[in-house]
Amino acid sequence: PPQRRWPLEANEYKRYGRQLIMPEIGLQGQLRLKTASVLIVGVGGLGCPAAAYLVGAGVGKVGLVDGDTVEESNLHRQILHSTAKVNMTKVESAMIALHSLNPNVELVPHQGRLTPETALSTLQHYDIVLDCTDTPASRYLISDTCVLLGKPLVSASALRTDGQLMVLNNPPLPPGNTSGGPCYRCVFPKPPPAESVVTCGDGGILGPVVGTMGILQALEAIKVLTKQPSASSNDSAPADPPSLLIFSAYSNPMFRTIRLRTRKLKCAVCSAHATVTPEALNSGSMDYVQFCGTVDPVDAL
Amino acid sequence: PPQRRWPLEANEYKRYGRQLIMPEIGLQGQLRLKTASVLIVGVGGLGCPAAAYLVGAGVGKVGLVDGDTVEESNLHRQILHSTAKVNMTKVESAMIALHSLNPNVELVPHQGRLTPETALSTLQHYDIVLDCTDTPASRYLISDTCVLLGKPLVSASALRTDGQLMVLNNPPLPPGNTSGGPCYRCVFPKPPPAESVVTCGDGGILGPVVGTMGILQALEAIKVLTKQPSASSNDSAPADPPSLLIFSAYSNPMFRTIRLRTRKLKCAVCSAHATVTPEALNSGSMDYVQFCGTVDPVDAL
Amino acid sequence: MSDAKDEGTIGITVEFSGGLEMLFSNERKLSLTIPAKDEDGTRSNIAFLVRHLCDTVMKDPRKELFVLDDTVRPGILVLINDADWELEGEDKYEIEEGDNILFVSTLHGG
Amino acid sequence: MSDAKDEGTIGITVEFSGGLEMLFSNERKLSLTIPAKDEDGTRSNIAFLVRHLCDTVMKDPRKELFVLDDTVRPGILVLINDADWELEGEDKYEIEEGDNILFVSTLHGG
Ligand SMILES: [Zn+2]
Ligand SMILES: [Zn+2]
């Protein structure tokens, strides 16, 4: 959508007043949110609270990607859905709830799972991406696509009583530029053995744990989108150093912040030696499911 | 309500399956949640996410206290409410949303603000209390009442880009027992000067900041309610040492955990020298608004 | 910001949270070098640090939002190396090289 | 748990997160005393610690969920004093008294 340069409507001053008056957001920040677009991949335990707070904050356009339908076992943590919406698609269910929260936000449904063939064309229309999915294959696919398109990525995950959060590819500089933020492959060059991967279905998940991580994704997205340009140049102020937030509900302290590496000089996606290209993705020659392996259920942790 | 000793209904196994299978909760933990009652005082930026995740988790009874109606300026952060509910009472609006999320939970409306005259009779019917209010006067009133009734208290607050969280009076031993957890007055014996108190209306608030603190209140309540008895006695395992979680969305690290003091030997409520009594509360002789002072708007920060 | 180590000074970190940073030019974290001994020649403690912050660091005229009766006002928690100062001797705690002193204003919003 | 300081040993803290604690008897935090030098007489590094954990600490038989090709398996981050080990020399980092080594399994649920 074209940049809007005139200030907000009267009802927007009222609705967003409490965040508008803060120096960290201000009128400029609110206008940045209004002209921004966010893609939320996965409308489950992470995506529900992330979407609620981004729509509440007045992001201009929010896209929702999911191929699943609402199940009763989702409801303890997926708070945009409700009992009456069991069997509805998650995208449809979320859109109803989000529209009633804030009708000013344009919501874009993307029914179905993201695939290598659809990833570039889906993500290219958005300014920032939230990875709210639940498999290693989708995490590599989303990160690779964000690097190829130059989009920052807010990646979170949760299992049982633990959660993790990273802002990746921030700033989203072209592959080979070592000043760009690290990508998912810089941090995890190889996927974990398939038998070590535990899903929320198998391992369980405590609702407020995944809820906390999802809300923090919304927060990080708002911070990236409203960042004020530095005084000395037209560029944004330097991004925070790359870090991983680790949450552990039954540990003391519950939260730890870990300093992460910068871009890996031999990263397969974001380095000068990248082998993952838009052509490879579009051609369907990248098999992320194969890359991450599959597991005989008997061997699973 | 009487303790139920038979296991869950079939649909409850399905709905709560993802948390049931975790060792931290288990069937016993789920049954404890089902027989438990939680009072949420304040159904705003903290109370909305706290209520959503407690109702999602299957707490048996949730009480909601609030005297306000929904305003458009609430909606960016108070995600249980929606545009169509502007001017409805917050309690009524929240009950509609919570009932649609999980019809198995008994919801109890308490319209109106908590006062010294109503506090004891309102709180006594609940196992644990969440302070989701927004003034010093209500924070002292709720903490005092929790000490007098022997209820643990999960207290959170947020302003601008910062948040704070404490679990108080945990374990909730009688006044004078120094093994009980500290109360709000132990940590803050005197109220702050009224001119230093900033409200969300004046100072602003970022939605995901207050949302994070509210979800963490739900988490702490679930941890307290599902705590397993220690092997050696019928008592619960010792509570975590008292601490304050400080959240600062624009700092690095974002979260810090601070060790707090134990009960204060001269605390006006929880010590052997307590002067705040049930009689004083019920008689209306305690004036919390006076205690916390009022301020000429011109002098406010 | 401190120079090479000096017998007569101590290098510490002072942090402000919960809105107090607004009284200190919106700085959330300061690296400070303070005298190792106070006016009376005794080792610098938190009471001295509070006076020092008021007199030489704080530009905001509203001192009463930080101090009252010569100590931090009610509603401000003082944390010494991530522990409540009540655990460390309150304002009599003698400051050591490298200490982190955090002043947190309680929040009341919700 | 460590005895009085011994020239030949190093006291460290080892932590597990993200589900790895289940491979270590559900302990999230261990105080360990390890030899200061490895089998070859060189200073103990992270590679040695990983072997040591596998051989003497880990009771779970599923070693392949922790190590692969003699180093931690893909999908485990190793953090040395709260920094990614890539910043510290990876498994060649020589362990020092008091170090905190955290092993975090990546999570994928959402
Ligand atoms: Zn990379
Ligand atoms: Zn007390």
UniProtKB/TrEMBL annotation, chains C, D:
Transmembrane segments: none annotated. SUPFAM superfamilies: MoaD/ThiS. GO terms for cellular component: cytosol. C-terminal thiocarboxylation occurs in 2 steps, it is first acyl-adenylated (-COAMP) via the hesA/moeB/thiF part of UBA4, then thiocarboxylated (-COSH) via the rhodanese domain of UBA4. Signal peptide: none annotated. The keyword tRNA processing applies. It comes from the Eukaryota. Pathway: tRNA modification; 5-methoxycarbonylmethyl-2-thiouridine-tRNA biosynthesis. Its main location: cytoplasm. The keyword tRNA processing applies. It is found in: Cytoplasm. There is a cross-link at residue 110 (Glycyl lysine isopeptide (Gly-Lys) (interchain with K-? in acceptor proteins)). Keywords: Cytoplasm, Isopeptide bond, tRNA processing, Ubl conjugation pathway. Gene3D superfamilies: 3.10.20.30. One of its GO terms (biological process) is tRNA thio-modification. The modification 1-thioglycine is found at residue 110. Pfam families: Urm1. Belongs to the URM1 family. Acts as a sulfur carrier required for 2-thiolation of mcm(5)S(2)U at tRNA wobble positions of cytosolic tRNA(Lys), tRNA(Glu) and tRNA(Gln). Serves as sulfur donor in tRNA 2-thiolation reaction by being thiocarboxylated (-COSH) at its C-terminus by the MOCS3 homolog UBA4. The sulfur is then transferred to tRNA to form 2-thiolation of mcm(5)S(2)U. Prior mcm(5) tRNA modification by the elongator complex is required for 2-thiolation. Also acts as a ubiquitin-like protein (UBL) that is covalently conjugated via an isopeptide bond to lysine residues of target proteins such as AHP1. This is Ubiquitin-related modifier 1. The lineage of its organism: Eukaryota, Fungi, Dikarya, Ascomycota, Pezizomycotina.
